[in-house]
Amino acid sequence: MPPRRGSLPHNHLPSPPSVPHSSTSGGAGPGATKDDNTTATLVTAAPPLGNGSSEGKATVPPADGAVVPADGVANHILSGDADKAAEGGDKPSLSADNPRLSALLAGGKGPEEKEGPSEGTATTPTEPHKKVNNIHPAVLPSTPHAQGSSAASSPISAMSTATPSPKSSEHNQTGGHSPSSATPTAPAVNGNGKGGISEDSQSPLKADPPASTCFKATPPHIHGSSSASSSISIYPSSTDVLKACRNLGKNGLSNSSILLDKCPPPRLPPPPSPVLPKDKLNPPTPSIYLENKRDAFFPPLHQFCTNPSNPVTVIRGLAGALKLDLGLFSTKTLVEANPEHLVEVWTQLSQPADENWDPTGTKKMWRCESARSHTTIAKYAQYQATSFQESLREENEKKALKEPSDTEPASAESAARKRRGPLKYIKFGTNIDVSDERKWKQQLQELSKLPAFARVVSAGNLLSHVGHTILGMNTVQLYMKVPGSRIPGHQEHNNFCAVNINIGPGDCEWFAVPEPYWGVMSNFCEKNNINFLMGSWWPNLEDLYEADVPVYRFIQRPGDLVWLNTGTIHWVQAIGWCNNIAWNVGPLIAHQYKLAVERYEWNKLQSVKSMVPMVHLSWNMARNIKVSDHKLFEMIKYCLLRTLKQCQWVKEALAAAGKETVLRPRTRDEPAHYCTICEVEVFNLLFVRRELLSKKPYVVHCQDCARKGSATLDDFVVLEQYRMEDLMQVYDQFTLVSPRV
């Protein structure tokens, strides 16, 4: 289908033809490909963070809430000097001709910074005037902000915000972007200038991390601060909370004065405003080249990746800089290590990355279905190798025949006809679990070379505080691909960040849309009769262009790490034969926590299970970390308050019905519990049918579903996993601490 408004920008044009690659059996070497015609840019840099780069001893906190080692944790675990991460030598620093950036890198405040370090972190002074490689600042264009913000109620809705006053300085904080003052437009730095796919660049979005809450109140007391306010804290003690909950009746409803203003239920955000001009809909992707290990451990790299202004960042040359042995994840090594390991297979139609056709090749569509099956690593490796050999044979046959279509320019009509059909089927090996340290010891040890913010396990990673395994999120997953293998459009579970490394030898093509546009994307899915959260879809780029949705489009080469920021919508297609590894990360910042909770509440309304148990996680965070950022503290504390009250309400209702709870403490590594009927998280008080009490894991019901099955709860036993006294102690001891100066 030709463009409807003249020529589309390069993100909306067809992909370049696939280039044959070397055999997949060898894997990629430790080096990484670096194009000579591109320039790496660091778009912006906020005040340097003690980003946890010295953290190297973190372990996953046990389920019982024991405190983890906190060596150099990212933002809120106050610990030792983060500068040691570079492991010797002077710290690198960025040189910049941007006054704000230069001031920030010198350890001071830029002209736009009016507050202290973001997220209440312990800052690391950075020596000025030491140039670091080829990372340079660039000018940011002004960007739109969301007209409204999604918000949430339910047990942990405080962090899901209602729309504040438009005069508020944080009115745009739900994934939106504050409009910046007019700035000169910088020349395109990283595009190839020829209308092709952009590999590197700056982001068109500029925003402060959203972290506003749906209430206004006196700031909470700061633990250990002599200057703490003498007014009453917005958070009462646990004793006051429980006193206010007495005798509320069986329905657990209350208008007690300790309740903060209720937030509206979650909702789809409207399209960001103002609308971006058409020439801003193909933003080049923020990319950073690394030349050595010190670059990878440079603290501003962490902050750059987690800045909401950058929906996606490509860290190029990572494998070479860190001397990662990517060969450990090559097909040959995988077969030698665990040939019978299970592989999930998706059978898909092979087609150009920027198009999605029905099986007949006659109609463009959003729906992108895959048939599911299973095989082993050894069998998929054979398929992968055979696919490569067949491709080489076809190429040789074409050269021998000297087909006119290969040597003469073809008309647009004939090219489209050739492109559409017939479509052949391919097989994509996906969701390969690489979490077992007994099977994958070498591979997992190799990943410990990564900087702390990108590691699978880190005390500065929210997912390391869950206390149990969430496959593919706080564990590594492997993907084995042939050209055309697709990961359809989606956001990561509960809007967490993601890390993806291309093992090679082939490339992957990525498409990404900023988080504030997820409402637009959801509406497109609904128009096409697809479930945004659970369905399988591949966006039509022409539709997105017409709807003024910006699309980042870039190539991920072997050794490149792609950092997907909080809530970024994305879809990926393999260009060549390659393997990838990926996992999720939860930066310890208010923006991440807030968007995770908003999706947690939205999932409830959509009857979708949240893979991250945010209530369970919040209580573990309260046990394991000390928070110095007041925004993050308020959101976590209010979650504790709501769930503490909920536990009291349920216990009061049970007591009134003559029902006693049975203490059954959690075991180590015990997963969080979900209702077997509605799949909402069930915290602390588990309703289990009497006849299934001996079955492990427990078949749990929430109170609502249990009462639907047995109004008097005669058929249920209620297991209590924490004593109220223990929860009260955690609640009272979780206080805001003074940031390290």
Automatic annotation (TrEMBL):
Residues 38-49, 60-74, 149-166 have a biased composition (Low complexity). Residues 1-233, 260-281, 392-417 are annotated as: Disordered. One of its GO terms (cellular component) is MLL3/4 complex. It is found in: Nucleus. This is [histone H3]-trimethyl-L-lysine(27) demethylase. Residues 439-602 form the JmjC domain. Residues 81-90, 392-405 have a biased composition (Basic and acidic residues). It comes from Oryzias melastigma (Marine medaka). Belongs to the UTX family. Residues 263-275 have a biased composition (Pro residues). It catalyses: N(6),N(6),N(6)-trimethyl-L-lysyl(27)-[histone H3] + 2 2-oxoglutarate + 2 O2 = N(6)-methyl-L-lysyl(27)-[histone H3] + 2 formaldehyde + 2 succinate + 2 CO2.
